[in-house]
């Protein structure tokens, strides 16, 4: 037996998604939609809310607020939370948790909604948001004690407050092929059916009703249903971003610091707040585009090799507590230019958490040189 | 007041001796020098570019600068210091305005200068300050500006030429209804699902 994609149903993705959502409503009393302010979760929340409205049911709209996000994201989530108020249980989480700040080497972690720093917060907390952990503090779990209570810890502890709940997520297979492949291997049984578009998560399930949508399906739906979407997309479009590359992400994670570069042009007020909020942001804005510093793709002129540059960065690392973490990790690595460049990147991004792991292998250039030595 | 033309370094030294510095008063920071009140017109070949300017202007933006100078006149003098060793003026701000009066662009005999009495470190800092202390255009305000130009009846080609952007950019800025509308005629994809089949 093997798994294949079947188009036998001859339905559009919209018809199929509506069927899937109706199926979820038939089988689950408790439904929660995770939203990010992005376009995919906007479509999903809208489809689910329309169905809830039709059935006179209430569903949770769940947003984990990282504090340091576009104002447009907040506006978008506010819009979704108030679209069908009588059918919505707002679950807007504004709890203290740790975020990694890739842009500052002295302030390794930003604590979102940090107690006592309310004057510096990007904006005041929202009325009616969840501001204290709704779970038992005694039973609270942390994945990694060194990193502190992080983003995924909030999600896991929050989800454990529920049982038998369907968490709807706007994941699309074409966007996240790896996650999709991993998920398909573990189908779940719901009623009589075997569902490939979901996974068991403890006492709950995560379901992905938009898994087969393409980006143009998302846009078509937003247009046709006159659903509002984050204005960042229109600004990115005006700036000439390819439509398939538009993401509304948080600013300060390793993989998304590039979005700070355009922030002053998109949301100058948010940028000003951000400057006050986190050290190092101004540097990322000015150098994010210059390949030299943050992408670490060009060796600075005054260094002869990546190894020399790495040793320099390690020797001058401003954080004595983090330096040994890097030293210990690098000791396990091969000594070559290919690896050293990636180590430089980790040092510059202060990635002591190893979010961007080093591809520890022989330098591909050496092999190429050897090949040509033999051939010539 | 008639313009002061400088053809030789002797002209400059003579003028320098007779120039009275001009000040305005700040209520917060006291006396502030106004070098631009003493702008002089200097022979272009007496002015050298600096070698350390990190600011980079793309060729299309050079085109905008040229159009701007033709349309609005030379409104911002090039900022220089007098370098005794080289016996030349050296630019600390306005390298591209200096280049634009060169033979490959406007080819002018004179260029307006303000001369600052800075040493090397002050020069380097000034260059940085001049380049960084500038705003960026907010995208939606740019879009608004282009929309208003179109309302005024300015053609798209003319806008593209004057602002130094391509037509595609003008079209994107003109589009006010947003990304979603581009997809109004996109057909929905066909749904698929995972199915188990037995191997043949």
Which features would summarize this protein structure in a list?
heterodimer; A: 376 residues; alpha/beta; 15 helices; 11 strands; 40% helix; B: 200 residues; 36% helix; 20% strand
Structure commentary:
- Chain A is α/β, with parallel strands linked by helices and 376 residues long.
- Chain A is 40% helix and 13% strand.
- Chain A has 15 helices and eleven strands.
- A six-stranded mixed beta sheet of chain A has the order 4-3-2-7-11-10, with helices on both faces. Chain A has a two-stranded antiparallel ribbon with strand order 5-6. A two-stranded antiparallel ribbon of chain A has the order 8-9.
- In chain A, strand 5 (97-100) and strand 6 (109-112) form a beta hairpin.
- In chain A, helix 8 (259-266) crosses helix 9 (268-277), helix 8 (259-266) packs across helix 10 (281-287) and helix 12 packs parallel to helix 14 (337-348).
- Helices cover 36% and strands 20% of the residues of chain B.
- Chain B has 200 residues and is an alpha/beta fold.
- Chain B has helices spanning 9-18, 59-72, 95-100, 120-132, 139-151, 156-163, 167-174, and strands at 5-6, 23-26, 30-33, 40-43, 47-48, 78-83, 88-93, 110-116, 193-197.
- Classes of the chains: A alpha/beta (376), B alpha/beta (200).
Counted beta strands of chain A: 11
Distance between the termini of chain A: 50 Å
| Helix proportion range of chain B | 25-40%
The largest pleated sheet of chain A is described as: 6 strands, mixed
Structural class, judged by helices and strands of chain B? Answer: alpha/beta
Topology (SSEs and partners):
The complex is a heterodimer of chains A (376) and B (200).
Chain A lengths: L1 E5 L6 H15 L2 E5 L4 H17 L3 E6 L6 H11 L6 E6 L3 E4 L8 E4 L38 H9 L5 E4 L8 H8 L3 E3 L2 E3 L2 E4 L2 E4 L7 H10 L6 H8 L20 H8 L1 H10 L3 H7 L3 H4 L11 H10 L7 H9 L5 H12 L15 H12 L1
Parallel strand pairs in A: 2-3, 2-7, 3-4, 7-11
Antiparallel strand pairs in A: 5-6, 8-9, 10-11
Chain B lengths: L4 E2 L2 H10 L4 E4 L3 E4 L6 E4 L3 E2 L10 H14 L5 E6 L4 E6 L1 H6 L9 E7 L3 H13 L6 H13 L4 H8 L3 H8 L18 E5 L3
Parallel strand pairs in B: 1-4, 5-7, 6-8
Antiparallel strand pairs in B: 2-3, 4-8, 6-7
Helix pairs in contact in B: 6-7
């Amino acid at each position: 037996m093997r798994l294949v994609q079947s188009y036998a149903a001859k339905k559009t993705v919209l018809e199929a998604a509506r069927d899937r959502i109706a199926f979820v409503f038939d089988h689950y009393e408790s439904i929660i939609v995770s939203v990010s302010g992005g376009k995919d979760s906007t479509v999903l929340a809208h489809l689910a809310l329309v169905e809830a409205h039709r059935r006179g049911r209430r569903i949770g709209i769940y947003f984990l607020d990282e504090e340091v996000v576009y104002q447009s994201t907040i506006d978008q989530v506010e819009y979704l939370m108030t679209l069908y108020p009588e059918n919505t249980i707002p679950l807007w989480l504004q709890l203290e948790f740790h975020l990694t700040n890739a842009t500052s080497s002295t302030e390794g972690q930003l604590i979102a909604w940090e107690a006592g720093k309310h004057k510096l917060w990007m904006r005041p907390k929202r009325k009616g948001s969840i501001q204290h952990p709704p779970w038992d503090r005694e039973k609270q779990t942390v994945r990694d004690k060194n990193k502190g209570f992080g983003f995924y810890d909030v999600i896991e502890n929050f989800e454990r407050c529920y049982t038998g709940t369907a968490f709807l997520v706007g994941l699309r297979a074409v966007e996240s092929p790896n996650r999709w492949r991993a998920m398909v291997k573990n189908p779940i049984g719901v009623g009589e059916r075997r569902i490939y578009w979901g996974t068991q998560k403890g006492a709950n399930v995560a379901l992905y009703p938009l898994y087969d949508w393409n980006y143009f399906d998302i846009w078509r739906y937003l247009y046709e249903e006159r659903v509002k979407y984050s204005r960042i997309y229109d600004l990115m479009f005006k700036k000439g971003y390819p439509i398939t590359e538009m993401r509304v992400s948080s600013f300060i994670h390793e993989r998304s610091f590039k979005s700070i570069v355009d922030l002053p042009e998109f949301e100058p007020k948010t940028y000003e707040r951000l400057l006050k909020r986190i050290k190092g942001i101004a540097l990322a804005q000015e150098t994010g585009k210059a390949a030299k510093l943050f992408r670490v793709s060009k060796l600075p002129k005054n260094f002869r090799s990546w190894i020399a540059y790495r040793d320099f960065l390690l020797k001058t690392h401003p954080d004595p507590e983090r330096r040994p973490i890097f030293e210990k990790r690098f000791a396990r690595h091969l000594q070559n230019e290919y690896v050293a460049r990636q180590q430089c990147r980790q040092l510059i991004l202060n990635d002591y958490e190893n979010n961007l792991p080093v591809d520890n292998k022989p330098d591909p250039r050496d092999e190429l040189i050897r090949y040509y030595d033999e051939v010539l | 007041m008639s313009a002061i033309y400088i053809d030789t370094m002797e002209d400059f030294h003579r003028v320098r001796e007779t120039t009275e510095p001009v000040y305005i008063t700040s209520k917060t920071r006291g006396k502030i020098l106004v070098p631009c009140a003493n702008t002089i017109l200097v022979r272009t070949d007496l002015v050298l570019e600096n070698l350390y300017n990190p600011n980079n202007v793309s060729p299309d933006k050079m085109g905008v600068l040229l159009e701007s100078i033709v349309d609005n006149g030379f409104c911002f003098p090039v900022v220089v210091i007098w370098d005794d060793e080289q016996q030349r003026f050296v630019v600390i701000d306005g390298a591209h305005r200096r280049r634009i009066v060169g033979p490959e662009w406007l080819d002018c005999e004179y260029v307006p200068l303000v001369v600052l009495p800075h040493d090397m470190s002050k020069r380097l800092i000034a260059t940085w300050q001049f380049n960084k202390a500038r705003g960026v255009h907010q995208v939606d305000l740019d879009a608004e500006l282009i929309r208003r130009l179109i309302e005024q009846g300015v053609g798209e080609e003319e806008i593209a030429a004057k602002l130094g952007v391509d037509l595609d950019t003008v079209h994107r800025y003109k589009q006010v209804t947003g990304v979603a509308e581009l997809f109004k005629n996109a057909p929905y994809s066909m749904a698929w699902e995972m199915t188990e089949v037995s191997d043949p």
